[in-house]
């Protein structure tokens, strides 16, 4: 077998492995960011609004009701994890 073919095949294999790793990390980072934003909205924002409401009551300021939390799915369906 020609050594140039072996070098070319090794180069292609390495490029494919690096590309697959990049795609996996990019997908994983997006999932982590989506989970973080969802957690902040569902768990932490209600506590922040409650604290803000208490501070406003002490200062005698009237506040409107906090906005409801809605998530917009741009693709129309929930994205499923790859793994």
Give a summary of the structure in a few sentences:
By secondary structure, the protein is mostly helical. It has one helix at 3-59. It contains 1 helix and no strands.
Largest sheet: none
The arrangement of helices and strands along the chain is H
Estimate the global geometry from the Cα principal axes.
Answer: rod-shaped
Helix content estimate: 55-70%
Tally of separate helices? 1
Keywords:
rod-shaped, 0% strand, 83 residues, 1 helix, mainly alpha
Task: Describe this structure as you would to a colleague.
The protein has one helix and no strands. It is an all-alpha fold and 83 residues long. It starts with a helix and ends in a 24-residue tail after the last helix. The model has no long low-confidence stretch (mean pLDDT 83).
Element layout with pairings:
Layout: H1 3-59
